[in-house]
Prior knowledge:
alpha+beta
Amino acid sequence: MQTYSLPKEESGYYCLGIKKIIFSDLEAYYHGGFWGTDVMYIPSLNTTITAFTLQKEKRVLNATTSKLLIKILRNEK
Length: 77
C-alpha cells in the first residue's frame, strides 16, 4: 500500500489505495472517503486516526480534530 501506483510526480503521491502526505509536519498515509470518513496512519507516532462527519460540508472538522489529537499525542499545549 506504500508503493506509488505511478511515479510520485504523476500520481499526486497516491499509492495503492492510500496517499502519502505530510500532516502537522509528520509523514502520514491517508485515505479520505467520499462520504466524510478520513483515515490516517502516522508511523512516527505509531497511531491511526479515524474521523467521520455526518455532514459533508463540515468535513473540515475531521482535519481540525486530527490536528488536536496529534497535539495531545505530542504533549503540546
